[in-house]
Amino acid sequence: MAKATAAPTPRTATLSVVLGVMALTRSSPLGRRVYSQDGQYLVSVRYLGQWHDIREFIQPENPDVLAIYSQIGPDPWSLYDFVCQNVDYRRDVGEFWFTPSETLKGYGDCEDTAILLTSLIRAGQAPNCYVALGSLGDLGHAWVELNGQILETTYTSARPVPDPSSYETMAIFNDQEVIEFWPGALDEVFSLRRDERIKLNLMEKVLNGFA
What we know:
The chain is of the alpha+beta class. It has one domain (31-210): C8orf32 fold (Roll), CATH 3.10.620. It has seven helices and ten strands. The protein has helices at residues 10-25, 63-72, 76-86, 100-103, 110-122, 185-189, 196-210; strands at residues 34-37, 40-43, 52-53, 88-89, 107-108, 129-136, 139-146, 149-151, 167-173, 178-180. Strand 6 (129-136) and strand 7 (139-146) form a beta hairpin. Helix 2 crosses helix 5.
């Protein structure tokens, strides 16, 4: 006969929840977005309590990515133009990174479009293509760096960046590697001030300069 187990009291149930939360956050202090574990850079950029290796967001073998690459690639500039013209800029609420397939639904913010374009270019095995995380005008921002060239995926069409010196790169990543420009730089990225309204105004001024 199976031995009966007493139902947990409210006090023991509460203790179990607390212990569970402690186990979840033991290696990741509350409030942090990134921490390093076993050679991985884990980020919390989707649902509460979920941690992902940051490299997992770059998906060159994603079927949706390969389908677009087969139509538009391999020219990186054509892929850049595709992303700019087919993904509307959406102001992010909080911090929620999309996968390439989600961004291909037609909207996303700077991280989402940079992740998509890097995935598309990496589908052609381009070795020096990364999502760059850093600041633009003292605001947190993301863009693509290809062979050192900045590709600004929040533009409405592919065009060179007129003011590359205003971009400060703090960390770069793709599906193979993560490079911090100084120890703890990736953690600092998530502490940068974010103001989507100011950023959009800045982009509009740049675009008007091209008109």
